[in-house]
Amino acid sequence: MTSTETVGSTGTTGTASTSAATDTASTSAATGTASTSAATGTASTSAATDTASDRETRPSERVEDSAPAVEPEAEPRFERVQFASDDLEEARSSLESVYDGRQFRARATGEPFAFRFASAGDSRLSLQTGTFTAHLQGVIPWSRDYAMSWFRSGSVTVDYPVGQLTSEGSRPFLTPTETSFAFSMTPHRHGIVHVDAAFLEAVASERHAGPPQRIVFDYAAVPTDEALAAWRTTLGEVTPLIVGEETPALARHAAQQSLVRGMLDLFPWRAVDVPDALRTERTRRLRQAAEYVHAYADQAITSADIATAAGMHTRTLQLLMSEHLGSSPTNYVRHVRLDRARQDLLSSEPGSVLVSDVARRWGFGNLGRFSASYSARFGEYPRDTLAR
Q1: For residue 280, which phi and psi values (nearest 5 degrees)?
Q2: All domains of the chain, ordered by start, with CATH?
């Protein structure tokens, strides 16, 4: 037996009911999928507001024609999707399609099989729940989006190019981004928060005060009980707003932002400033090399260390960095360390730290050379940054 339902609407009048996802991790946690848009574009005003007499008295000024108005972006389309089936092969095929997966394989347990999947949300953020009472394994393809899961029953093991992770009870965990990974699940009930990369990175920029950048989470981190309790409270509070049919667009957007902030509070993370051109499946190894530098910039790392971490020969690393970053591995490490030194200076009060101490902390033993390199990169001397 199979049932399928798909409902779509505008973001302001989404049709997800509170039953869109009934397998919750907490009292009302994870009851569907919802994403919002930060699209609140503004119309530009006319530059021509001077009066004719004003223009006569200021002949040197030229009044431009009014710029065309910028139309606000439309709210993302809200959708609710539900599947249910007692046919194992049909359920396997449905999930493989939903996740655009590969090589999904299912194995029955000998007990009656049941499958349910519910998703409510839009292109920014979605909440999903699922029940699959059989063993399931497969491959999830490369994606830039972020996903956090938790299990009410059962477990999963995830294998990705640089590690492996296994779920621990009902504790949330993050699946790897910008890489494909293989998974193996026991019969389970679980919830997922799926977040568009651009949305999460925009919210994270509130914390690191830079432009939106790729966020690298510590996948091995285990949330503390205190952080976990705060997350569950947030999830319970925002879920009705995210999946509610009558939730106003601004309230839904605020709820989604709160949930993303909760994710950022739950796991350690860092922003990694890598060119957008590296955020592709084809350039995955070079991106991993850049991320390794960001993670270990405070340690004595060599070009060979970086190449090994990315699974390539040192010469290959040199060629790829020159082609895509316009830099050698040594210069890239130096630039990252200069960036870290600048962050330390900006976050310090004048008189609380010495420029020489910050320089040595990031591997610059010659203060004169450090100041020259710093000035060349940022257009000011370290002492000027510290004096701000």
Answers
A1: -130, 165
A2: 2-36+75-266 (2.60.120.10), 275-386 (1.10.10.60)
Asked whether the beta carbons of 350 and 358 are under 8 A apart, the reply is no
pLDDT of residue 71: 60
The pLDDT assigned to 235 comes to: 97
- The pTM (predicted TM-score) of the whole model is 0.71
Q: Which residues of the chain have pLDDT under 70?
A: 1-73
**Residue 185 is encoded by which pair of tokens?**
């699940």
Written in H, E and C, the secondary structure of the chain is CEEEEEEEECHHHCCCCCCCCCCCCCCCCCCCCCCCCCCCCCCCCCCCCCCHHHHHHCCCCCCCCCCCCCCCCCCCCEEEEEEEECCHHHHHHHHHHHCCCEEEEEECCCCCCCEEEEEEECCCEEEEEEEECCEEEEEECCCCCEEEEEEEECCEEEEECCEEEECCCCCCEEECCCCCEEEEECCEEEEEEEECHHHHHHHHHHHHCCCCCEEEECCCCCCCHHHHHHHHHHHHHHHHHHHCCCCCHHHHHHHHHHHHHHHHHHCCEEEECCCHHHCCCCCHHHHHHHHHHHHCCCCCCCHHHHHHHHCCCHHHHHHHHHHHHCCCHHHHHHHHHHHHHHHHHHCCCCCCCCHHHHHHHCCCCCHHHHHHHHHHHHCCCHHHHHCC
The confidence score (pLDDT) of residue 161 equals: 80
pLDDT of residue 69: 56
Supply the pLDDT for residue 314: 96
- In whole angstroms, how far apart are CA 376 and each of 179, 345, 369, 381? 35, 16, 11, 9
Paired with 117 in beta bridges are: 83, 130
Q: How do residues 361-378 score in pLDDT, each as one tens digit?
A: 999 999 999 999 999 999
Please state, in angstroms and as integers, the Cα–Cα distance from residue 312 to each residue in 140, 306, 315, 318, following that order. 24, 9, 8, 10
Taking only the tens place, the pLDDT of each residue in 288-298 is 899 889 889 99
